[in-house]
Amino acid sequence: MLYRLDAVFLAVFLAVSGAIFWLAPGFPDTGERFGPAFLPRVLAVLLLGFSVALVVRWVSAARRGRLARAEISTGLGSKAFLFGLALAGYVTLLGRDTPLGFPGLTVLFLFGTGLLFGGRSPVRVGLMAVLTALGLYLFFRTWLRVPLPPSAWF
Amino acid sequence: MIDALLAGFATVLQPPTILFLVGGVVLGLVVGALPGLTATMGMIILLPLTFGMAPIDAIQLLMGVFVGGITGGSVTAIAINIPGTPASAPTVLDGYPLTKLGRAGEAISVMYITSMMGGVAGALACIAVAPALAEFALRFGPPEIFALTAMGISLVISLSSESVLKGLAAGILGMILSLVGVDPMSSYARFTFGNVNLEGGFGYAPVIIGLFGLTEVFFALERFVRHGQGAFTPQKIGGLGGPLRAALHDIRFLWPTFFRSSAVGIIIGALPGLGADIAAWLGYDLEKRFAKHPEEFGKGSLQGMTGCEVANNSEAGGALIPALTFGIPGDPQTAIIIAALMLQGLRPGPLLFAQHGDLVWATFAGLIVCQLVTLLLGLVSVHAIMRIISQPFYVLYPPIAVFCVVGTFAIGNSLFDVWVMLLAAVGGYFLKKFDYPLVPIVLAFLLTPMAESELRRGLVLHRGSFLAFFGRPLFDLILLLSILAFAMSVWMLRKVPMGTSRVETE
Fold first, then answer.
1. What's the confidence (pLDDT) of residue A70?
2. How many CB atoms sit inside 10 A of residue A23's CB?
3. Are residues A39 and A59 in the same domain?
């Protein structure tokens, strides 16, 4: 099935092909007949070919009014965006030296996303967040010795 | 062979290996039963943890999740009309009608027993074929290995999607992703833009965890928002004593189904790009053609349900044949097993049999033990599983997201890997949303480095002449088998209902 927003993917594929064609000549000559630039060029040609074929089909479908709409509702869009933002923020802060450390950041993340996933009782969601965060921290830091950032209080 | 297999059993049945196997099965049964969580996701979550384990323990843990997950998905298919995994989708057709007839316990018992039988059949096929094939593969040179990997990549990317062009584009994208990093032959850093983190390329585990694991959490959020569903509500299932006796009586008439469906599952498993869900549908379709009363299908036919259950479980053994022998995964789950072996510094292929034969035979033995343990644990844990799957989504999915983050970090203590995983998840969500299949991306990503290095090595050996490859009988044989495999796959796929996902994450 072809969608309206497939145009975005096609643009990305064409851009990737173009980027490879632009970068590949800069690869060194290693003396091989088929050196480090060989496979990238082959793949760029193939991706370009498939993209052109998809563009032709997309344009044909657009003219006949047969492009589908993807099912992404605005309600989902805002929740997915918030979830993605929360994940990105969580990972960013894990890499910084904060007093919350892994346990605190994880409790916050699980609490926020728990409410996002339909948790109605903040107390239950909070309890789930605390128990899960502490359990994961003990499991990874103590048993598996993964250097997770500690919190100032635990 | 018998001695090696018995030694394998002896290894698997000792602690801690047997404990990891049992733990994997338990997790697999739970994860498989939860709609939206799959055997693949269960394996993904555990993949980073296997890094610090002994190879045999890692493999048994992942296989336990694999086998338990495929079987566990059928419990919810029967009990609540929702397949826990795509491989259990056809089970719904006759499993849920049996529940509505008050025969849920009997259906679940037949499902567990026949799944075990199919799984053991697949394991025996793997044991019979794989060692001989590995012995034969020792004669392969770089051109033959290139031909095999190229066959694997081309089968997967051409058969994984209803839109062939989208499947091809996705596969090429996966191949391009694998090019980032140091070139295996010349050590030149390609597409790294001076970034030290990119010199090692994108790690297998972060990409797989992002595409197969975290992407599904996004889709779970979508299900919650779209359907307003905060939890699943399964029907009550009574005691299993009586139904189990009835099931043992039913199975006496299902032996022809068992043989036919086992063959389907093993063949499908050995062909890259198809997977357990295709095996399940083909097993169901085949039984409908052989049934004396096909009109009963869709209304509670044990023959129909058994056809898909035996096929989807025997597929596991079939998929391990190309995975262990050549390093070519037959489905996403064996791709994860290969990734786990590579995390351990082991490379699947004929040398694995030669240098780590004990590990290989323990894997074979473990596959059989997994089936038996799944049967036993599955029967006693049905009610507990029903309680778990009725937990609210907020208890299940956010912790899985955290597990994906921490698990990815644990592999190399690198936040860069976590960012790769996140980007893969976001990209995977949008790609899947617009019908670009994810499995070809992952399998092409896994296989392309080997294909490229063997191609270039072969060209060096033959002074740059690709035509010289065709003068090698083994290369020509593999080429012929590739064409036959492609034709057989296309023919088989014609029988799969439209709209069935191809090799999607299970």
1. 64
2. 15
3. yes
Element containing residue B182 per DSSP (H, E): strand B181-182
End residue of a domain, out of A30, A63, A96 = A63
Beta bridge partners of B182: B189
Residue A98 lies in a domain: yes
Q: Are B433 and A83 a contacting pair at CB < 8 A?
A: no
Contact flag B176-A140 (C-beta cutoff 8 Å): no
Instruction: Please indicate, yes or no, whether residues A41 and A82 belong to a single structural domain of this protein.
Output: no
One-character DSSP codes across B82-136: --SSGGGHHHHHHHHHHHHTT-HHHHHHHHHHHHHHHHHHHHHHHHHHHHHHHHH
DSSP B190: E
Residues of chain B with pLDDT under 70: 35-37, 158-162, 225-242, 273-274, 389, 489, 492-506
Q: Tell me what pLDDT residue B503 has.
A: 41
Q: Which residues of chain A carry a pLDDT beneath 70?
A: 32, 69-77, 144, 152-154
ipTM, two decimals: 0.89
Strand partners, A68: A3
**Res A15: pLDDT:** 92
Question: Can you give the pLDDT at residue B180?
Answer: 92
Chain mean position to CA A116: 19
- Taking contacts as CB-CB distances below 8 angstroms, the residues of chain A near B168 are 46, 50
A138 and A85 share one domain: yes
Give the pLDDT score at B122.
92
> Which chain B residues are Cβ-neighbours of A71 within 8 angstroms?
226, 433
Q: How many residues does chain A have?
A: 154
pLDDT in tens, A84-99: 889 999 999 888 877 8
Decide if A20 is inside a domain: yes
pLDDT tens, residue by residue, B112-170? 999 999 999 999 999 998 888 877 777 888 898 888 888 878 777 766 666 777 888 88
User: For position B162, what pLDDT does the model report?
Assistant: 63
A84 and A47, same domain (yes or no): no
How many domains does chain A contain in total?
2
Q: A40 vs B176: CB contact, 8 Å cut-off?
A: yes
What is the CB neighbour count within 10 angstroms for residue B483? 11
A106 assigned to some structural domain: yes
Q: How far B414 CA sits from the closest chain A CA (Å)?
A: 9
Q: CB within 8 A of A141, min separation 6: which ones? A: A102, A147, A148, A150
- Is residue B401 within 8 Å of residue B217, measured between CB atoms? yes
- Determine, for residues B169 and A87 on separate chains, whether the beta-carbon distance falls below 8 Å: no
Q: Tell me the two tokens of residue B154.
A: 């081309």
Q: What range defines the domain where residue A121 resides?
A: 74-143
Contact at CB, A27 and B402, closer than 8 angstroms: no
Q: How far is B213 from chain A (nearest CA, A)?
A: 14
Burial pattern B317-330, b for ≥16 Cβ within 10 A else e, equals bbbbbbbbbbbbbb
Here the tokens at position B155 are 């089968």
pLDDT of the residue at B50: 85
Question: End of a domain among A63, A84, A111?
Answer: A63
| pLDDT for res B68 | 92
- Whether residue A93 is contained in a domain is answered as yes
Tell me the nearest-neighbour CA distance from A70 into chain B, angstroms: 7
